[in-house]
Amino acid sequence: TAALRIGFIGHLRNTFHAALAAAEWRFLAAAPQAELFRLLTMATQDISYGTYLLLQLLVNMVMASASLAIAFYLAPVLTFAALGAGIALWGMQRRFLQRAHELGVHFTEQDRDFFAGASEFFGGLKLIKSAGAEALQQSRFETATAAQSATQNAFFQSQSGSRALHGLSSVLLAAFLLYVSVQWLHLPQAELLLVLLVLARLMPVASQLHYELQEMLHMLPTFVAQQDWLQRCRDSAEAASAAEPLPLSQGIALAGVTYRHRPDVAPALDDVSLQVPARQTTALVGMSGAGKTTLADVVLGLLLPDSGAVMVDGVPLLPSQRNAWRQAAAYVPQEAFLFPGSVRDNLQWANPATSEAAMWQALQQAAAAEFVRALPQGLDTLVGERGMRLSGGERQRLALARALSGLGARGIRLQ
């Protein structure tokens, strides 16, 4: 069961990760990042525990079936009576199962909101400190944790009530069966003791089955949420990509490109046509919100235009070619993002076999070689999480060097 559980969770995590990576950027940009992170990490641990309980439940059901078979063989009438009483007892506890599922739904919603708040806290930590809003943020955090604690306490109280009811009912059931066996069925003492032994072993198993079912129903909403997002990612997957690189000798053109971020808003790009000649530097300028970043994402193939086309050397860029097109491009976003690790780790991110000479060439082209040489360990200096050990300008130059290094790793020479 341990091997099955570990294998299933690894498969589930890898499948969800692959679906996220293969989804369209338009879908991913609009999706709640904190929720996807939760479903990939912490939620998978909850599902892992639920999987363990499911496997244990199957094992306990086999054990319970074996015990019932023996009991039926020894005393069918008594066993039938015990089974009927047990089914009645489970019927009495149905409300506890419903309560476990309701609390699971509630807790899943709270956990989603909690992760969203935690993500906002880390993303806006500098703003919170600069505004002196630490106390307000702490109050909101404590409110969220108190709500989660209340839901969990309610679930544990429900479990305790269920166990108390099952324990009391088991004692009464055992006394009833003993009375029936002696007064009505007149079972021999040896047979009676053997039947009672089998039933005594069966009752804890029945209690464990109910406990495991409660826990599974409590976990089920998390599993349903993950499967829902998994299907959404699959429905938004990019078209299968061709592996052949696209040539570029003349230039890139946009022909009547229109793009809306949502159907109910004005277009970010409205019938845009332009020419970007090859082997020249082209700068696109405009006020904030004019659509510059959206246009760059369309040219890069991250976004598909609602109408119009991106032309490469006069040939439309097909959806199946976008991945190969992006692999031949260097892209540096507005907010420079660095991976944890060293300067070397970031420069070798696109290709671990990138030579040191190629890395220094990329650093030189990005005007970053001088500050990297001045670092305590040079290329092996740790940049910290998201590059926090470097200044903003240093992060931007290193991100540019990483993009140039990635092109060099793919055999693309920069003149």
Q: What's a quick, concise take on this entry?
A:
With 415 residues, this protein is of the alpha+beta class. 66% of the residues lie in helices and 6% in strands.
What does this structure look like?
The chain is α+β, with helices and mostly antiparallel strands. It is built from 15 helices and four strands. Strands 2-1-3-4 form a four-stranded antiparallel beta sheet, covered by helices on one side. Helix 4 packs antiparallel against helix 5 and helix 13 crosses helix 15.
Keywords:
415 residues, 15 helices, elongated, alpha+beta, 6% strand, single chain, 4 strands
Task: Chart the SSEs and their pairings.
Elements: H1 2-22, H2 25-30, H3 33-40, H4 42-74, H5 76-92, H6 94-123, H7 125-130, H8 134-185, H9 189-235, E1 251-259, E2 269-277, H10 292-300, E3 307-312, E4 315-316, H11 322-327, H12 343-347, H13 356-365, H14 369-373, H15 392-409
Antiparallel strand pairs: 1-2, 1-3, 3-4
Helix pairs in contact: 1-4, 1-9, 3-6, 4-5, 4-9, 5-8, 6-8, 6-9, 8-9, 13-15
Tally of helical segments: 15
**Residue runs with pLDDT of under 50 for 5 or more positions:** none
Give the strand line-up of the largest sheet: 2-1-3-4
- SSE ordering: HHHHHHHHHEEHEEHHHHH
